[in-house]
Amino acid sequence: MRALLLLVDRLSTWLGQAFAWAIVLLTAGITWEVFSRYVLNKPHAWALDAQIMLYGTLFMMAGAYTLSKNGHVRGDVLYGFFRPRTQATIDLVLYVLFFLPGIVALTWAGWTFASESLAIREQTFSAEPLPLYPFKFVIPLAGGMLLLQGLVEIVRCAQCIASGEWPSREQDVEEVDVDKLKEMVHVKDEDIAALDKYVTHEADAAARQGAAR
Protein backbone atom coordinates (compact mmCIF):
# COMPACT_ATOMS: atom_id res chain seq x y z
CA MET A 1 0.00 0.00 0.00
CA ARG A 2 2.80 2.41 0.91
CA ALA A 3 4.44 1.85 -2.50
CA LEU A 4 1.14 2.65 -4.25
CA LEU A 5 0.67 5.86 -2.26
CA LEU A 6 4.21 7.01 -3.05
CA LEU A 7 3.67 6.11 -6.72
CA VAL A 8 0.70 8.48 -6.91
CA ASP A 9 2.79 11.09 -5.07
CA ARG A 10 5.52 10.74 -7.68
CA LEU A 11 2.99 11.06 -10.51
CA SER A 12 1.54 14.25 -9.01
CA THR A 13 5.07 15.56 -8.45
CA TRP A 14 6.14 14.78 -12.01
CA LEU A 15 3.09 16.45 -13.53
CA GLY A 16 3.47 19.47 -11.27
CA GLN A 17 7.13 19.87 -12.18
CA ALA A 18 6.41 19.36 -15.88
CA PHE A 19 3.67 21.97 -16.02
CA ALA A 20 5.76 24.33 -13.90
CA TRP A 21 7.70 25.06 -17.10
CA ALA A 22 4.60 26.97 -18.19
CA ILE A 23 5.88 29.83 -16.03
CA VAL A 24 8.96 30.04 -18.25
CA LEU A 25 6.80 30.20 -21.38
CA LEU A 26 4.53 32.73 -19.70
CA THR A 27 7.46 34.95 -18.71
CA ALA A 28 9.00 34.73 -22.17
CA GLY A 29 5.66 35.47 -23.83
CA ILE A 30 4.98 38.52 -21.68
CA THR A 31 8.52 39.82 -22.23
CA TRP A 32 8.28 39.42 -25.99
CA GLU A 33 4.84 41.03 -26.15
CA VAL A 34 6.04 44.07 -24.18
CA PHE A 35 9.05 44.40 -26.50
CA SER A 36 6.91 43.91 -29.60
CA ARG A 37 4.26 46.38 -28.46
CA TYR A 38 6.45 49.24 -27.21
CA VAL A 39 9.63 48.85 -29.27
CA LEU A 40 8.47 47.34 -32.56
CA ASN A 41 4.97 48.84 -32.34
CA LYS A 42 3.49 45.47 -33.35
CA PRO A 43 1.13 44.19 -30.63
CA HIS A 44 -0.54 40.81 -31.03
CA ALA A 45 -4.24 40.35 -30.39
CA TRP A 46 -3.76 36.73 -29.29
CA ALA A 47 -1.05 37.45 -26.68
CA LEU A 48 -3.36 38.11 -23.71
CA ASP A 49 -5.46 35.02 -24.44
CA ALA A 50 -2.33 32.87 -24.57
CA GLN A 51 -1.08 34.31 -21.28
CA ILE A 52 -4.39 33.62 -19.55
CA MET A 53 -4.47 30.02 -20.79
CA LEU A 54 -0.87 29.39 -19.72
CA TYR A 55 -1.48 30.81 -16.27
CA GLY A 56 -4.72 28.85 -15.91
CA THR A 57 -2.94 25.63 -16.89
CA LEU A 58 -0.13 26.29 -14.43
CA PHE A 59 -2.57 27.07 -11.62
CA MET A 60 -4.84 24.06 -12.18
CA MET A 61 -2.09 21.48 -12.67
CA ALA A 62 -0.42 22.61 -9.45
CA GLY A 63 -3.40 21.42 -7.40
CA ALA A 64 -2.52 17.72 -7.11
CA TYR A 65 1.17 18.54 -6.71
CA THR A 66 0.47 20.89 -3.81
CA LEU A 67 -1.86 18.38 -2.16
CA SER A 68 0.80 15.66 -2.43
CA LYS A 69 3.20 17.95 -0.51
CA ASN A 70 0.53 18.84 2.08
CA GLY A 71 0.97 22.44 0.99
CA HIS A 72 -2.59 23.72 0.65
CA VAL A 73 -3.60 26.53 3.00
CA ARG A 74 -5.48 25.47 6.13
CA GLY A 75 -6.42 27.10 9.43
CA ASP A 76 -3.38 26.11 11.48
CA VAL A 77 -4.24 28.24 14.53
CA LEU A 78 -5.58 25.19 16.39
CA TYR A 79 -4.91 22.36 13.95
CA GLY A 80 -1.14 22.41 14.55
CA PHE A 81 -1.61 21.76 18.29
CA PHE A 82 -3.68 18.60 17.76
CA ARG A 83 -2.24 15.11 17.88
CA PRO A 84 -1.76 13.35 14.51
CA ARG A 85 -4.75 11.08 15.11
CA THR A 86 -7.01 14.09 15.78
CA GLN A 87 -5.64 15.89 12.74
CA ALA A 88 -6.30 12.85 10.57
CA THR A 89 -9.87 12.53 11.87
CA ILE A 90 -10.61 16.17 11.04
CA ASP A 91 -9.02 15.83 7.60
CA LEU A 92 -10.94 12.64 6.85
CA VAL A 93 -14.29 14.24 7.69
CA LEU A 94 -13.52 17.30 5.57
CA TYR A 95 -12.31 15.19 2.64
CA VAL A 96 -15.51 13.14 2.64
CA LEU A 97 -17.94 16.02 3.20
CA PHE A 98 -16.38 18.72 1.02
CA PHE A 99 -13.41 17.58 -1.04
CA LEU A 100 -14.82 14.49 -2.75
CA PRO A 101 -18.19 16.00 -3.81
CA GLY A 102 -16.54 19.21 -5.04
CA ILE A 103 -13.74 17.57 -7.01
CA VAL A 104 -16.01 14.90 -8.52
CA ALA A 105 -18.37 17.66 -9.67
CA LEU A 106 -15.43 19.67 -11.05
CA THR A 107 -14.09 16.69 -13.01
CA TRP A 108 -17.50 15.65 -14.37
CA ALA A 109 -18.55 19.17 -15.34
CA GLY A 110 -15.08 19.91 -16.72
CA TRP A 111 -15.24 16.90 -19.04
CA THR A 112 -18.68 17.95 -20.31
CA PHE A 113 -17.47 21.50 -20.72
CA ALA A 114 -14.38 20.42 -22.68
CA SER A 115 -16.27 17.93 -24.86
CA GLU A 116 -18.79 20.57 -25.90
CA SER A 117 -15.93 22.98 -26.65
CA LEU A 118 -14.25 20.35 -28.85
CA ALA A 119 -17.50 19.61 -30.69
CA ILE A 120 -17.80 23.20 -31.89
CA ARG A 121 -14.01 23.76 -32.22
CA GLU A 122 -14.34 26.71 -29.85
CA GLN A 123 -11.97 29.63 -30.30
CA THR A 124 -11.17 32.76 -28.33
CA PHE A 125 -13.08 35.96 -29.11
CA SER A 126 -10.21 37.88 -30.68
CA ALA A 127 -9.12 39.41 -33.96
CA GLU A 128 -6.52 36.63 -34.03
CA PRO A 129 -8.40 33.72 -32.39
CA LEU A 130 -6.71 30.79 -30.68
CA PRO A 131 -8.23 27.31 -30.27
CA LEU A 132 -9.80 27.16 -26.83
CA TYR A 133 -10.82 23.51 -26.52
CA PRO A 134 -7.32 22.12 -25.79
CA PHE A 135 -7.08 24.42 -22.79
CA LYS A 136 -10.51 23.37 -21.51
CA PHE A 137 -9.42 19.72 -21.41
CA VAL A 138 -6.96 20.77 -18.71
CA ILE A 139 -9.96 21.17 -16.36
CA PRO A 140 -10.95 17.47 -16.20
CA LEU A 141 -7.28 16.43 -16.27
CA ALA A 142 -6.49 18.62 -13.27
CA GLY A 143 -9.68 17.51 -11.51
CA GLY A 144 -8.92 13.83 -12.12
CA MET A 145 -5.38 14.15 -10.75
CA LEU A 146 -6.62 16.10 -7.75
CA LEU A 147 -9.25 13.43 -7.11
CA LEU A 148 -6.64 10.64 -7.34
CA GLN A 149 -4.31 12.44 -4.96
CA GLY A 150 -7.22 13.16 -2.64
CA LEU A 151 -8.01 9.44 -2.42
CA VAL A 152 -4.39 8.84 -1.47
CA GLU A 153 -4.68 11.45 1.27
CA ILE A 154 -7.86 9.77 2.56
CA VAL A 155 -5.95 6.49 2.84
CA ARG A 156 -3.19 8.34 4.70
CA CYS A 157 -5.79 9.71 7.12
CA ALA A 158 -7.12 6.22 7.77
CA GLN A 159 -3.60 4.88 8.35
CA CYS A 160 -2.82 7.74 10.73
CA ILE A 161 -6.01 7.13 12.71
CA ALA A 162 -5.02 3.47 13.04
CA SER A 163 -1.33 3.98 13.91
CA GLY A 164 -1.27 7.44 15.49
CA GLU A 165 1.44 8.66 13.09
CA TRP A 166 1.31 10.25 9.66
CA PRO A 167 2.63 7.99 6.86
CA SER A 168 5.60 9.18 4.84
CA ARG A 169 5.13 11.07 1.59
CA GLU A 170 7.20 11.95 -1.47
CA GLN A 171 9.57 14.83 -0.70
CA ASP A 172 10.47 17.73 -2.96
CA VAL A 173 11.96 21.22 -2.78
CA GLU A 174 10.75 23.04 0.31
CA GLU A 175 11.07 26.49 1.80
CA VAL A 176 14.17 27.05 3.92
CA ASP A 177 13.57 26.41 7.61
CA VAL A 178 15.22 29.24 9.55
CA ASP A 179 16.14 27.08 12.53
CA LYS A 180 17.71 24.40 10.33
CA LEU A 181 19.60 27.07 8.40
CA LYS A 182 21.03 28.48 11.63
CA GLU A 183 22.17 24.99 12.64
CA MET A 184 23.85 24.46 9.26
CA VAL A 185 25.92 27.67 9.51
CA HIS A 186 26.47 27.26 13.30
CA VAL A 187 24.73 30.51 14.24
CA LYS A 188 23.10 30.90 17.66
CA ASP A 189 20.37 33.27 18.79
CA GLU A 190 22.93 34.97 21.05
CA ASP A 191 25.08 35.76 18.01
CA ILE A 192 22.12 37.32 16.19
CA ALA A 193 21.21 39.37 19.30
CA ALA A 194 24.80 40.64 19.59
CA LEU A 195 24.79 41.58 15.91
CA ASP A 196 21.48 43.42 16.33
CA LYS A 197 22.94 45.42 19.22
CA TYR A 198 26.02 46.28 17.14
CA VAL A 199 23.91 47.39 14.17
CA THR A 200 21.63 49.43 16.43
CA HIS A 201 24.64 51.08 18.10
CA GLU A 202 26.18 52.00 14.74
CA ALA A 203 22.88 53.40 13.50
CA ASP A 204 22.48 55.54 16.62
CA ALA A 205 26.03 56.84 16.25
CA ALA A 206 25.43 57.77 12.62
CA ALA A 207 22.19 59.51 13.58
CA ARG A 208 23.96 61.55 16.27
CA GLN A 209 26.69 62.56 13.81
CA GLY A 210 24.08 63.64 11.31
CA ALA A 211 22.25 65.69 13.92
CA ALA A 212 25.50 67.38 15.00
CA ARG A 213 26.15 68.51 11.45
Strand content: under 5%
Which percent range fits the helix content? over 70%
Shape: flat
The secondary-structure element order is: HHHHHHHHH
Cα-atom radius of gyration: 25 Å
Tell me, rounded to a whole number, the average pLDDT: 86
Distance between the termini: 74 Å
Domains, number: 2
Sheet having the most strands: none
Number of helices: 9
Q: Structural class of the helix and strand makeup?
A: mainly alpha
Number of strands: 0
* Unreliable runs: none
Q: What can you see in these coordinates?
A:
The protein has 213 residues and is mainly alpha-helical. The chain has two domains: 2-174, no CATH class; 176-213. The chain contains nine helices and no strands. The longest helix has 36 residues, at 84-119. The radius of gyration is 25 Å and the shape is flat.
Quick gist of this model?
The protein starts with a helix and ends with a helix. With 213 residues, it is mainly alpha-helical.
Task: Reconstruct the topology from this structure.
Blueprint: H1 2-19, H2 22-38, H3 47-68, H4 76-79, H5 84-119, H6 133-136, H7 138-163, H8 178-184, H9 189-212
Helix pairs in contact: 1-3, 1-7, 2-3, 3-7, 5-7
Fill in the keyword field for this structure.
213 residues, mainly alpha
